[in-house]
Design goal:
Layout: H1 4-16, H2 19-26, H3 30-44, E1 49-52, E2 55-58, H4 60-83, E3 92-98, H5 103-116, E4 120-126, E5 140-144, E6 153-161, E7 163-168, H6 169-175, H7 181-184, E8 189-192, E9 210-214, H8 217-226, E10 230-234, H9 235-238, E11 244-246, E12 256-263, H10 264-267, H11 270-281
Parallel strand pairs: 3-4, 3-5, 8-9, 8-10
Antiparallel strand pairs: 1-2, 5-12, 6-12, 7-10, 7-11
């Protein structure tokens, strides 16, 4: 497929939203933009944009093209920097993704990064899904659990978050605190369905004692506060909740490792190296 000019044109239309804006940015005629889009859609066999009164909105296929083009632009930036014997300027959008529990811990590091590189714009996406770094969906992903093993990713250890078993004081006052394995089997369990947390309570609680379950950490926390039963919660965050009672000494098996993940094609760009440095050098409140 030899459609680099057309792909660049479609990328600008997706970014800017109108044919006129893309034509101005590229320094070409509006009719050329239309011709490039039509040729590319014919080549790919599907529509890249929905046309409407306000301009052009990328379809699902158009979004895929935008992600690929963004990654390609980053790679060309890196190549140009190496060829000219310099690294590229740290500027533009930086996309970071993680699960929600990480956010309060790394915001100070992100602020320090932006203070050092004020020409950057940080987009922080909270999501449980795995962003496809190979398609440029994010520059850096913070992932939990077992060490990621996707090909072409660079993985660095980040930190370990410890969790404990907690219940609200109201629940303890009504049902008591378990002190033996047999006691746990009589208590209500709030199950966090996220991997690997879903299996942490299997050895302690009876399956029919699961009274509440969710894969959303905010929801499981609200269930703890409501006094549904006993559940897992990060020790660091529990310190700020005086009504939560730790019911047993934490087990090292409940430790959750986190990893910094970047794609090999973008890993050595100055922007990615800068944010990775700030995150690894941050004084996390663990």
């Amino acid at each position: 497929m030899d459609r680099w000019d057309e792909m660049r044109t479609a990328y600008m239309v997706a970014r800017l939203g109108t044919l006129s804006a893309a034509a101005t940015e590229l320094g070409i005629h509006r009719a050329t933009v239309v011709r490039h889009i039509d040729a590319l859609e014919k080549e790919l066999g599907g529509k890249l944009f929905q046309r409407h009164a306000r301009g052009y909105t990328p379809t699902e296929a158009g979004q895929d093209l935008l992600r690929v083009a963004q990654a390609t632009a980053e790679q060309f930036e890196q190549l140009a920097g190496r060829t000219r014997g310099r690294v590229a300027e740290v500027s533009g959008e930086l996309v970071l993704t993680s699960v929600e529990v990480v956010a309060p811990l790394i915001i100070p590091a992100l602020q320090a990064f932006h203070a050092s590189y004020p020409q950057t714009r940080i987009r922080y996406d909270i999501s449980g899904r795995l962003y496809r770094l190979e398609y440029g969906e994010a520059h850096v992903a913070i992932r939990a659990g077992e060490m990621p093993d996707q090909p072409d990713n660079v993985v660095r250890p980040f930190f370990t978050l410890r969790s404990g078993l907690y219940a609200h004081r109201r629940y303890i006052a009504q049902h008591g605190r378990p002190v033996s394995p047999e006691d746990f089997k009589k208590h209500a369990y709030i199950q966090d369905n996220r991997t690997p947390m879903a299996g942490w309570g299997d050895a302690l609680f009876e399956p029919d004692r699961v009274v509440f379950s969710s894969s959303n950490e905010r929801i499981t926390f609200q269930a703890l506060k409501a006094g549904f039963g006993i559940g897992f919660y990060p020790i660091l965050l529990a310190k700020a909740q005086p009504d939560l009672v730790q019911v047993v000494e934490p087990d090292p098996a409940w430790d959750m490792p986190f990893w910094l993940v970047t794609h090999i094609d973008l890993n050595w760009t100055r922007k990615v190296q800068a944010i990775v440095h700030h995150l690894l050098a941050s004084d996390l409140p663990l």
